[in-house]
């Protein structure tokens, strides 16, 4: 069990060796004993003691808490929650942006054997109602008044609700306090109880095991209502441990926790891996300061969906367009050098000495300052997942020496299905199976997997569980893909989205959309084509990129709508589509799905209007229902179409906007076979 | 009340029934004229501790003049101003600021080239004790003092949710945010009475709602007494405890929003009345 060093008793050996490398951590205690987060917490509080576990920027200063302090805070909260009546298997919703106290709430709940249910904090009340009601929450840990208001608005449909604990009390002074409690007060009561009985929590912490349910994570619900994915402690802890091993992550990593807590990615990176490896998580000051905070922290390990990398690249390009001529020349010259040799240098391949010198010079003059501005100076490893990333974007970051890799995952797998090993990083694949995970493509072309992260069940939805997971533990992803000759998995599209044009050729909407989204001026695309004569598209322009371009070209505009409808914007987007069509013409499988007609939408697709999920994935069926007129117009010979759309404002009120949208034709290229 | 009866008690609902008895400021029989133009004629009303008091009226009714009298920009020819239980003599505006009255302006008056943070630090100026030399050397007391003031300002930055523009020069900020910074600066002065001159003018609906929320929260959290001038009747009726209505420099109504809503003279002044 314990591997103690010689005759020295275990405890002293741990204290004596405060070397925080993963290897020594692993050898000090049998990892399989640490099968719950409360146990990991106690272990970390002993092993790392005064090392910083979590930071948050508040009042302009990075406030930090050590592992030891975290344990105290969490135990006080747990004891307080116990006194309020949170019981084993009770559910507590966690609603708010990434804040230390909310992360502590998860562990505190787990100390009592209760189950935390993080919820997307930007959900409107009705969306929240479904999840909280379905999960039968008895408590809610809410960030502030905004969230508390939402909870009380839906309180009638939460029969189990016993109490709401809030973190920030502003504006809550006049609220009735029978069910509403201040975080601080709950902790204070917990502290009193713990001083009377220090062993108050020990029994429930010891009783916890790896096979217990650790957390409910609700899927974003691209199709239909969100499903509650039930994950055990083992699911999270074992996958975290495996991935830490694979990437050699240590306890000295710094990460920025800025992605929604309700999303499995954040749960693994900011919670699972942070507890297992003992590294430090940093919570931004507010959602608007993420970029500044990123720069100040300089994370060593970073995770972001492709759209974040896209927007960083767009910002860099916009700024460079605005920079002086000399700087611009310098930037473009060295970026060309980086594209030539940067990726090879990162992959450790042989590179000509002269090129290496030029790259070194470029690093001195351009890359290093640029990385510093982006907050990536110290980065050792970055991951992107969730959607395909544009090869240009991917190569841009890799050529700067940022080791960004792709992985493929799902909530149902506790993230990791496949991941790219160092040195085998390609823009068009998602890597090889993650440690301990078996992946195969079944006869119908669907990717299936099984492994340590495979979820327990969907909460209160046995039929969906049976549809997704078979008796042998294989999970059906619903994604179509194949392994290439390098043994890497390639994902084509959601299996059920792949369709056929009337002439029988394949139509893969996601593939087209991603190709178009690689242009900085295009933010979102929805393509149509299944069962139609040709492919057509809705475009959302990127206001930052197009707005900047408009400014530089003296194009006046007063609103998003006006800019989107501008003829020169139509012309620019038309040229982008033309380029994609040209590309597609040389693809034997997809030459048929060149985009023949398109229109630019007058409003941004928005989760508040139900057009996207909270993780910003397009809900096709909603779009189809809402914009049916426009779809019909794309498949007629109309050159414009009137549309009136309901919009929901952030506070839940609704209004409508109307517009006459132009529908534009694009050039179609005759397919050319690659051989000729 | 809505379905959550009793639990989610909105401030506005509470306001209607809030009671304030202690007088903070009173103006008695104020008359002010510029040459032959009578801006204010025989105006009397009071502002009580802890309340939100609105001063409304059509264009040119004398609202801003009234505010300027309260904070000492104008000196009325007749009448008295009582503050904190004492009759006020003829004071300069900065002396009045020292007494504990802070304000914002209709046309934003910030230092455009300075950052949000620095602008707000200037709000602390009445509280700074150490001398110029000490600040130049920045040792001992001056250093401690600045840290203390910065702490206070940071709390207000957090309160107003303007962390992301802490270091941005205010001249670069959109109008709504500049208004918020100006409120922040006035808050930093930790005054007994806060005068807001059209805090919501020129804002869109969302900005207005945010501003309302901040004003209510300031009143709630810090217990600051607030007197505000506002055009938007909806806003005033929602957030004010009591309203005084001016028209052509005269006080034509004073009372709770409900009373004002039903006051015939006020209705006439706003909607116009035919004189036949």
Descriptive report:
The complex is a heterodimer of chains A (676) and B (276). Chain A is 39% helix and 21% strand. Chain A is α/β, with parallel strands linked by helices and 676 residues long. Chain A has a five-stranded parallel β-sheet with strand order 4-3-5-6-7, with helices on both faces. In chain A, strand 17 and strand 18 (446-450) form a beta hairpin. Chain A is globular, with a radius of gyration of 26 Å. Chain A starts with 9 loop residues before the first helix and ends in an 11-residue tail after the last strand. Chain B is an alpha/beta fold and 276 residues long. Chain B is built from eleven helices and ten strands. In chain B, the strands form two sheets. A six-stranded mixed β-sheet of chain B has the order 6-7-8-3-9-10, sandwiched between helices. A four-stranded antiparallel β-sheet of chain B has the order 2-1-4-5, covered by helices on one side. Chain B is globular, with a radius of gyration of 20 Å. Classes of the chains: A alpha/beta (676), B alpha/beta (276). Chain A binds chain B through residues 57-61, 148-149, 152-153, 155-156, 170-171, 173-176, 178-180, 285-286, 288-289, 292, 649-651, and chain B through 2-4, 6-9, 11, 14, 150-151, 154-155, 157-159, 161, 163-164, 166, 206, 209, 213, 216-217, 220-221.
Give the count of helical stretches of chain B: 11
Please state how the strands of the largest beta sheet of chain B are arranged side by side: 6-7-8-3-9-10
Described by the principal axes of the CA atoms, the overall outline of chain A is globular
Elements of chain B, N to C (H/E): HEEEHEEHEHHHHEHEHEEHH
The biggest beta sheet of chain A, please? 5 strands, parallel
Indicate the proportion of strand residues of chain A.
15-25%
Number of strands of chain B: 10
Helix coverage percent of chain B: 25-40%
Strand order of the largest sheet of chain A: 4-3-5-6-7
Number of helices, where a helix is a run of at least 4 consecutive DSSP H or I residues of chain A: 23
User: Largest chain interface and its two residue counts?
Assistant: A-B, 28 and 27 residues
Unreliable segments of 5+ consecutive residues of chain A = 1-27
What is the end-to-end distance of chain B? 44 Å
């Amino acid at each position: 069990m314990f591997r103690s060093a010689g005759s020295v008793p275990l405890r002293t050996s741990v204290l004596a060796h405060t070397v925080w490398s993963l290897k020594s951590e692993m050898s000090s205690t049998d990892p399989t004993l640490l099968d719950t987060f409360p146990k990991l917490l106690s272990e970390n509080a002993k092993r790392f003691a005064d090392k910083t576990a979590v930071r948050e920027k508040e009042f302009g200063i990075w406030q930090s808490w050590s592992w030891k302090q975290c344990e105290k805070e969490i135990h006080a909260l747990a004891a307080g929650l116990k006194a309020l009546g949170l019981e084993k298997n009770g559910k507590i919703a966690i609603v708010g942006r990434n804040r230390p106290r909310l992360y502590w709430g998860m562990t505190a709940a787990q100390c009592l054997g209760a189950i935390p249910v993080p919820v997307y904090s930007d959900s409107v009340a009705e969306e929240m109602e479904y999840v909280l009601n379905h999960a039968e929450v008895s408590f809610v840990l809410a960030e502030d008044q905004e969230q508390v208001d939402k909870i009380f608005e839906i309180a009638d449909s939460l029969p189990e609700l016993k109490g709401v604990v809030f973190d920030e009390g502003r504006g809550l002074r006049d609220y009735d306090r029978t069910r509403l409690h201040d975080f601080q007060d709950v902790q204070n009561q917990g502290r009193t109880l713990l001083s009377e009985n220090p062993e108050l929590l020990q029994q429930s912490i010891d009783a916890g095991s790896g096979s217990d349910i650790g957390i409910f994570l609700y899927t974003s619900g691209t199709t239909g209502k969100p499903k509650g994915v039930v994950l055990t402690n083992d699911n999270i802890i074992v996958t975290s441990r495996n991935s830490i091993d694979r990437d050699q992550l240590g306890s000295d990593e710094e990460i920025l926790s800025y992605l929604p807590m309700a999303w499995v990615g954040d749960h693994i990176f900011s919670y699972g891996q942070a507890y297992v490896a003992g590294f430090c998580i940093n919570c931004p000051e507010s959602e608007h300061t993420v970029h500044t905070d990123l720069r100040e922290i300089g994370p060593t390990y970073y995770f972001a969906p492709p759209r974040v990398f896209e927007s960083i690249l767009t910002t860099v390009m916009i700024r460079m367009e605005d920079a002086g001529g000399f700087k611009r020349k310098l930037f473009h010259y060295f970026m060309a050098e980086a594209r030539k040799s940067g990726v090879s240098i990162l992959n450790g391949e042989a590179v000509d000495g002269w090129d290496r010198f030029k790259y070194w010079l470029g690093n001195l003059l351009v890359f290093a300052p640029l990385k510093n501005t982006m907050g990536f100076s110290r980065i050792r490893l970055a991951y992107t997942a969730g959607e395909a990333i544009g090869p240009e974007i991917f190569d841009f970051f890799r050529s700067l020496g940022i080791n960004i890799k792709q992985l493929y995952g799902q909530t149902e797998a506790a993230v990791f299905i496949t991941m790219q090993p160092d040195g085998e990083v390609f823009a068009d694949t998602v890597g090889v199976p993650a440690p301990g995970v078996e992946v195969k493509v079944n006869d119908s072309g669907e990717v299936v997997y099984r492994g340590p992260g495979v979820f327990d069940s969907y909460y209160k939805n046995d039929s969906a569980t049976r549809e997704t997971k078979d008796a042998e533990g294989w999970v059906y992803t619903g994604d179509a893909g194949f392994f290439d000759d390098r043994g890497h998995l390639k994902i084509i599209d959601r299996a059920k989205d792949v369709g056929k044009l009337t002439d029988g050729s394949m139509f893969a909407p996601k593939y087209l959309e991603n190709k178009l989204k690689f242009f900085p001026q295009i933010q979102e695309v929805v393509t149509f084509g299944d069962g139609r004569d040709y492919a057509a598209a809705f475009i959302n322009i990127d206001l930052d990129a197009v707005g900047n371009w408009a400014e530089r070209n003296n194009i006046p505009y007063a609103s998003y709508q006006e800019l989107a409808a501008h003829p020169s914007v139509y012309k620019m987007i038309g040229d982008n589509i033309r380029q994609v069509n040209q590309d597609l013409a040389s693809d034997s499988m997809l030459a048929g799905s060149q985009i023949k007609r398109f229109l630019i939408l007058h409003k941004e697709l928005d989760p508040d209007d139900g057009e996207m999920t909270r993780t910003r994935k397009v809900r096709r069926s909603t779009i189809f229902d809402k914009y049916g007129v426009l779809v019909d117009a794309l498949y007629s010979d109309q050159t414009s179409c009137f549309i009136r759309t309901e919009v929901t404002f952030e506070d839940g009120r609704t209004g409508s906007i109307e517009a006459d949208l132009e529908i534009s034709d694009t050039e179609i290229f005759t397919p050319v076979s690659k051989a000729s | 009340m809505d379905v959550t009866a009793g639990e989610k008690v909105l401030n506005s609902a509470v306001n209607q029934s809030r009671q304030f008895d202690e007088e903070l400021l009173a103006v008695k029989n104020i008359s002010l004229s510029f040459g032959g133009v009578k801006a204010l004629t025989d105006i009397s009303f009071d502002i009580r501790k802890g309340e939100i008091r609105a001063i409304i009226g059509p264009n040119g009714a004398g609202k801003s003049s009234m505010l300027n009298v309260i904070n000492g920009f104008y000196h009325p020819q007749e009448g008295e101003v009582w503050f904190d239980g004492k009759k006020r003599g003829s004071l300069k505006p900065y002396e009045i600021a020292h007494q504990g009255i802070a304000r914002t302006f209709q046309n934003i008056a910030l230092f455009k080239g300075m950052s949000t943070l620095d602008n707000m630090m200037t709000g602390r100026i009445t509280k700074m004790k150490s001398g110029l030399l000490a600040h130049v050397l920045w040792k001992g007391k001056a250093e401690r003092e600045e840290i203390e003031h910065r702490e206070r300002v940071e709390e207000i930055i957090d309160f107003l949710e303007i962390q992301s523009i802490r270091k941005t020069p205010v001249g670069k900020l959109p109008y709504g945010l500049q208004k918020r910074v100006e409120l922040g600066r006035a808050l930093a002065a930790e005054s007994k009475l806060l005068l807001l001159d059209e805090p919501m003018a020129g804002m869109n609906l969302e900005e207005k709602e945010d501003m309302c929320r901040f004003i209510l929260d300031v009143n709630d959290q810090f217990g600051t007494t607030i007197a505000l001038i506002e055009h938007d009747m909806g806003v005033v009726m929602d957030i004010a405890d009591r309203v005084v209505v001016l028209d052509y420099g005269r006080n034509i109504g004073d009372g709770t929003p409900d009373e004002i809503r039903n006051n015939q003279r006020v209705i006439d002044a706003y909607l116009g009345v035919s004189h036949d």
